[in-house]
Amino acid sequence: MDDNQIRTQSSARTESVSAISWASIAAGAVVAAAVSLALFALGAGLGLACISPWADSGVSASTFKNAAGIYLVVVAVMSSAIGGYLAARLRTKWSDIHTNEAFFRDTAHGFIAWAFATVLSASVLAGAATHILSGAASGVVPVAQQASSSLNPSQIFVDRLFRADQTATTTAAPAGNSEGARAEILRLWASSFKENDLAAADRTYVARLVAAQTGISQMDAEKRVNDVITEAKATADRARSGAAKLAFWMTAALLFGAFAASLAAVEGGQLRDGTWKDHILTPRPI
Q1: Residues 6+ apart with CB under 8 A from 105
Q2: Structural domain spans, the chain
Q3: Confidence of residue 228 (pLDDT cuts 50, 70, 90)
Q4: Cα angle vertex 196, ends 193, 200, to 5°?
Q5: Contact indicator for 268, 254 with CB cutoff of 8 Å
Q6: Closest CA to 210 of 171, 229, 182
Q7: Pick the residue with more confidence: 156 or 126?
Q8: End-to-end CA distance of the chain, in Å?
Q9: Which positions ≥6 away from 92 have C-beta within 8 Å?
Q10: How far apart, in whole angstroms, are the C-alpha atoms of residue 87 and residue 69?
């Protein structure tokens, strides 16, 4: 058997073997997910150390949100780079393939490891991360956490509608069932505010109920209803803006993480296919 036949048989055996090393990909993904969890726990501690309930103390809300978004990107890059590097460094050594093909396979290994780690983190480790964050926050604001878990946000605005006005001068006590009126307005609020506002007829009726229950004039009641509705819209807009920024930061973290994993996998693959000489590792040329 001549050299050409030997090379042909070796090439055929190489092409028949799968180019994917699932064991190394799984190992890199698990490590990436574990590093992410550890860094998230560290970030929760740093975040709680930076905020304060006292005025003129701690970082501002906007600074904290931007810092949290940047930290999210840093966590994604660091964990994904470690996972991608291990996925390529621990794979089976390839031989008799072109360097361009090896470059593509290493990039694919890093990208697949990142995708596996992302799915693993979202499905399995999300509960653990949430437990760490909520557990840390419960040590700072336990009462607020318990109240927010059982309180309907609409009840806060309804309570502000029925807040007693000490300056009102009325000779007769407010008539009617306060609890029944609150429940009725809460139902109107939940049904009508889906369009981000109360209907005109509902707004007039709510103002009449507020005037009857609090003893203030109809004009003051209408002004109070308008002010509370404006405040509710502002709160909803802040929540919408915060959710949009969080989505953008998460998208950036995922994209940077995928790039870092693929780039680190190329480095790991070059070292995996490199050669040792006198305790010096020479990477595979690209």
Answers
A1: 19, 94, 269
A2: 20-149+243-282, 150-236
A3: confident
A4: 70
A5: no
A6: 182
A7: 156
A8: 33
A9: 21, 24
A10: 27
3-state secondary structure of 147: helix
List alpha helices for the chain, DSSP H. 3-16, 22-50, 61-89, 99-123, 126-138, 142-150, 153-161, 178-192, 200-214, 218-272
205 exposure class (CB count in 10 Å sphere: 0-12, 13-18, 19+): middle
Nearest Cα neighbor of 83 from 131, 118, 122, 48 is: 118
Side chain identity at residue 212, one-letter code: A
Query: Quick one: CA dihedral 226, 230, 235, 236, positive or negative?
Result: positive
Give the whole-number percent of the chain exceeding pLDDT 90: 26
Q: What residues contact residue 232 under an 8 Å CB cut-off, 6+ apart?
A: 157, 193
Distance CA 213, CA 170 (A): 12
- Measure the CA–CA gap between 85 and 25, rounded to whole angstroms: 10
